[in-house]
Design a protein that fits this description.
Strand order of the largest sheet: 3-4-5-6-2-7
Structural class: alpha+beta
Oligomer: single chain
Helix content: 10-25%
Number of strands: 8
């Protein structure tokens, strides 16, 4: 018995935009800026977490009603990665996910340095029978 499920996964990496080079000094400003972009794209933040690391490193996590967004910031290296996963629980979020990825590209990456991988799951997923263990 299959059940249709769709999700959109974007993974980006690149050099940190000059405007974010001091993000470790004010991670709340970065969190607020990203949260505003998430909302502007029509997605809903239901939780947030920021963790600081040595050498001006940060990991910021947003739990979305539609899944999650994670930014890993390596301040000393001037590098950033983004993991955005958006599910189609109540309706298609593909356009919202693409808009958010584009907005994060502009905010986070130095011009021309961002590289993205995009994956979409839009096929029926077979669920194991009750009590069965998936491989």
């Amino acid at each position: 018995m299959g059940s249709a499920m769709s999700s959109h996964h974007f993974v980006g990496c690149g050099l940190v935009a000059s405007a974010l080079r001091g993000a470790a000094n004010d991670p709340d400003a970065l969190r607020r800026s990203v949260t505003g972009r998430v909302s502007a794209c029509g997605l809903e933040v239901v939780g947030e977490q920021t963790v600081r690391f040595e050498n001006d490193g940060l990991t910021l996590v947003w739990i979305l009603a539609e899944s999650h967004l994670v930014l890993h910031y390596w301040g000393a290296e001037g590098y950033l990665t983004i993991d955005l996963h958006v599910c189609d629980y109540r309706g298609s979020n593909r356009a919202r996910a693409r808009r958010l990825a584009a907005a994060l590209e502009v905010l986070c990456f130095a011009a021309g340095s961002g590289s993205w991988r995009e994956m979409h799951l839009e096929e029926p997923v077979e669920r194991p029978a009750s009590g069965a263990v998936a491989p």
